[in-house]
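Letters spell out the chain; backbone shape is given numerically. Take this protein:
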Amino acid sequence: MDVLGLEQKELGGFANSDMSPHLFAPGVKAPTLVVQVRDDLWTTPEDGQKAFDLWGGNEKELFWIQGTARRFDGYNCSGQNPKRIIDWFRNYMH
């Protein structure tokens, strides 16, 4: 991860520590649904929970995707199982 962070910075990006959602989460006040792969190889459940806990709004929900360590399973979740996401949007989109 240190080498990846160095390469990221060298290519004109930011260090991973400067891109943490923890820095910005308190400013999020809109209703928020966080979808997180629990066993994602690039993070930890504690990191996902911390970001959620720091979210500034009161209307928030954390949805853990279980049974996989592949991040892209999280990206594909709403397309493959849209009911939970659609129900959430129905609640907030009037």
Summary: The longest strand covers residues 32-37. The mean pLDDT is 89. DSSP finds four helices and two strands in the chain. The beta strands are 32-37, 60-65.
